[in-house]
Amino acid sequence: MTERVKQLRKQSIEAVNRLDHERALLVTEFYRDHVVKDDPVPVQRALCLKYILDNKELYIGRCELIVGERGPAPKATSTYPEINLHSLSDLEILGSRPKVSFKVDEETRKAYRDVIIPFWKGNTNRDKLMAQMTPEWKKAYEAGVFTEFQEQRAPGHTVLGSKPWKKGMNDLIEECRDALKTIGSADANAFPEKRGQIRAMEIAAKAIIDYAGRYAAALDELAASEASRLRREELSKMASICRKVPANAPQTFHEALQHYWFIHLAVITELNPWDSFNPGRLDQHLIPFYENGDKDGTLTEEDAKELLQCLWIKFNNHPAPPKMGVTAEESSTYTDFALINLGGVKQDGSDGVNKMTTIILDVIREIRLLQPGSMVQVSKKNPDTLIHRALDIIQTGFGQPSLFNTDAIIQELLRQGKTIEDARNGGASGCVESGAFGKEAYILTGYFNLVKILELTLNNGYDRRTKTQTGPETGDPRKFGSFERLLDAFAAQVEYFADIKIEGNRKIEKLFCTNLPAPFLSLLTDDCIARGKDYNCGGARYNTSYIQGVGLGSITDCLTALRHHIYDRQTVHMNEMLAALESDFEGYDNLLEELLFNTPKYGNDDDYADQHAVQVFNIFFGAVDGKPCFRGGQHHINLLPTTCHIYFGKVTGAMPDGRKSGSPLSEGISPVQGSDIKGPTAVLKSASKIDHIKTGGTLLNQKFTPSFFEDSESFAKLTALIRSWFRLDGHHIQFNVVSADTLREAQKNPGKYRDLIVRVAGYSDYFNDLGEDLQNEIILRTEQGL
Amino acid sequence: MPSTMPKGLIFDIRRYSVHDGPGIRTTVFFKGCPLRCSWCHNPEGISPEQQQITRTRTVDGRKRAYQETVGKWFSPVEVLDILLKDRVFYEESGGGVTFSGGEPLMQPEFLNEMLLLCKKEGLHTAIDTSGHATGQIFNRTVKNTKMLLYDLKTTDNKIHKSFTGQDNYLALKNLLSLDETGPAVIIRIPVIPGFNSELAGMEDLCNLLAGLKARVQRVDLLPWHGMGHEKYRNLGMAPPPFQGNGSDDEYLVSLIDLFAKGGFNVKKGG
């Protein structure tokens, strides 16, 4: 690392996370004083973005090479009152909670109390969203059957394709004008609406050019008063870069990174899309700029690394926007899930690994920042050395990069109807979600608690925790008489809740389309311009709504236990089982011991247990896949929990797998914590029995102690393990390499381990920032590691 | 047919075994061993019979004792079914199956049946053995395996006998009987302080191996870390009186040097 990068990195790590009112105040001013009510909504939104960018404070760090912050300073985090409104007590909780806190100063509190809250109270998108949900939806939501992603954040998980790396905003404005001509001649009825949409995109494009212009002027001004000649030259160069991009297509490496960063900022200022925003296949996008600079002698490898590290620091300066309400207490990460994609294949299907892949992996290894996350796409076409380089970083216990199966992702995208080229240009974003980069609006809509639904099935649809008839009456389980009837009842409950969730999704998508279109994001995503349609309205070439199943391991073990003890061996009566569950196993030690230790478990490559994973998968898939979403696409499934398995565990009572009431569910497609005793190959075999290709992503966490990384032979064996998993069509695997003792020590002395980063689920986080429950779970997982 | 098949007494089958031969392997542990090595940390492999042991596990925070039978009778096909589960991993890694123990050569009929079944399935096989078996059994068995992990301890019979309870005559004779048609050999030498910790004795071993150089792929020096006595107590066995300390790193380095100079590919750990 250069001295400059060391300084910037230190500043970024040490900057205090705070909630900043600048954006909220500007948005409020805009809607109070400047909005023209007769303007189409997309135009209003574009003008709102312009108002923020025209008036926000600029920030230029002392030795920065890439400029621009969403807030007035690093880690001064914006809020989005048009989407969700923090109350004064939310601000209090955020400021004072011990983990993942956001400091709130008096000025911000005052702005909220006097201006922001009075204007938005009862009038946010969240208020409108909740008002539209049916009583059935609300009951299920409160019982913890599913969560709602769009309740506090806009549709996101969006990844940039190759186009915006090759075009400037002026080119896109040209595209808009051309599109308008075509649209006008094609459909006169739709024309006024589409004209509004396209006008909005043009306004947004110009807004970001002007914003860059403000930076250019500020940089020139700084240069004029700068004493150091070296820095003066840097500032002048940066000023000329800001005059060139994003208005025009970038030509140099430095221009490309600044170009991207302006685009990134505009996307996350316009709305608060999930998972921030994502530059996509960075090694593919950057290689031409690197090669040109290398060829004409204007760029060394060291220069490229320094610039990339400056970009990494920019990502790290931007925590996820703070949540409000219940989730202000629960949400436990600063990470905003931007995920850099490396490796994979090129559009023509050939090996995509290039010089940039190596350079970026070096950057990741060196800079060790929480954000952005990184992943390596592995295709059968890629060399083993790609995996070796990834393992070399993974073994440091940093939790990055995670490994993805490109060949599986391509099959998944093809099954969903993408062209082979669009599939090859795709990858995974957020945690593990597959998408056609630059051409798809694929949104996660909520986690789906499969274990809770079995609990409801065992109670004839009644939820004991909220004391409500939450699901349909699918029969008294004492009278089922066969495992098949039990499974049918479970399937009926899944279908019921999936339909409720999907109906809710359609309304919510419509709400965003109508009230919160995203004209700037639409500029970047094919084919929004050509169709004259917003990203949030189905303008993208492909549209997908994902529902993410949680608790595959737990639900499988529950069904296996019921079948094994009640129906196959008939050693336990359903009455006894229900009584034991109701009492949280108090007084049922013998039964609990049987359930925990003498019952086949998922994760051991035992077909008897694993068949139930397949059955649950098929039921969930059948209830969701292919059902239409509002934006013209379809619903598909994912299996990933982020940290939701903890929340879902809290709202789910004792279950037949021997899990006590309130304990975490299994995470991702991993086995129940500690129940896999046959080693990693057995886990991978079990997890491969579900059909990954029919999902849009699954998450598998594997823990290894550092001893499995000790020499080149171990690397070769781990590489073979990964290759085998991918041959079995596994979608993703991630490694957590830390000893349990280290973690326990860190729990006791958090101060000494401020930099300890562990893999949580689809992302890494500071161990200190995790809640105690999650910390304990990770310690447990690690203990049982090999 | 199955009724005439020999059954084998197995005390563990471990998948993703990465220290018992090339690639990713599944290791099958045979129960029963003719040796009584003082440093043995797998005492459940010693007795050729099933054993009952008492263990404890935690149920909702309370410790509960339970009985476990060590050793289970398997037919060759039952074991094969388990071995085949990891075929994809063997193929990707150049791995396979290792028969270990205990002493696999103590159940020669079963072992041979297993080797033939594996051969039919195209699985790479290795036998982890002390070589303590009759020449007839040894010669017949090694024909059917691709690799031997040969646990060699010392050339000094007196020391050998006092620490393992057996002469080293069979082990040495069988080793020297290997010719160029035989399997590849990895020599595994446990380095035990107070037993084979004299450099002079190791030089003898090195000289003995000189004649086999063409067959010996590698010499693995296995450091010893001391042992707990819990396993012995659980099995109702008296722990061996041997109280060695862990291996001395400096000594290990000089041994690596010795075998390297002798022309062997040598590795610490296996």
Q: How would you describe this structure to a colleague?
A:
The complex is a heterodimer of chains A (786) and B (270). The model of chain A has no long low-confidence stretch (mean pLDDT 94). Helix content of chain A is 52%, strand content 9%. Chain A is built from 32 helices and 16 strands. In chain A, α2 (22-34) packs parallel to α5 (106-120) and α12 (253-270) runs parallel beside α14. The longest helix of chain A has 35 residues, at 191-225. With 786 residues, chain A is α/β, with parallel strands linked by helices. With 270 residues, chain B is α/β, with parallel strands linked by helices. Chain B has nine helices and eleven strands. In chain B, the strands form two sheets. In chain B, strands 5-1-2-6-7-8-9-10-11 form a nine-stranded mixed sheet. Chain B is globular, with a radius of gyration of 19 Å. Chain B starts with 7 loop residues before the first strand and ends with a strand. Chain A binds chain B through residues 585, 589, 592-593, 596-597, 605, 660, 678-682, 685, 708, 714, 716-717, 720-721, 723-724, 727-728, 786, and chain B through 14-16, 18, 23-24, 57, 59-60, 62, 64, 66, 85-86, 88-89, 91-95.
What's the helix and strand layout?
The complex is a heterodimer of chains A (786) and B (270).
Chain A: H1 3-14, E1 18-19, H2 22-34, H3 41-55, E2 76-77, H4 88-96, H5 106-120, H6 125-132, H7 135-143, H8 163-166, H9 169-186, H10 191-225, H11 229-244, H12 253-270, H13 282-295, H14 301-316, H15 326-330, E3 339-343, H16 355-367, E4 373-378, H17 384-398, E5 402-405, H18 406-415, H19 420-424, E6 427-429, E7 433-435, E8 440-449, H20 450-458, E9 462-463, E10 468-469, H21 483-515, H22 519-524, H23 528-531, E11 542-550, H24 552-568, H25 574-582, H26 589-597, H27 607-624, E12 634-639, H28 644-650, H29 680-687, E13 701-703, H30 712-727, E14 732-736, H31 740-748, E15 757-759, E16 764-766, H32 772-783
Parallel strand pairs in A: 1-2, 3-4, 4-5, 8-11, 11-12, 13-14
Antiparallel strand pairs in A: 5-14, 6-7, 9-10, 15-16
Chain B: E1 8-17, E2 25-30, E3 51-59, E4 62-70, E5 72-74, H1 76-84, H2 87-93, E6 96-101, H3 108-121, E7 124-129, H4 135-142, E8 147-151, H5 157-164, H6 169-176, E9 184-191, H7 199-210, E10 216-223, H8 230-234, H9 249-261, E11 266-268
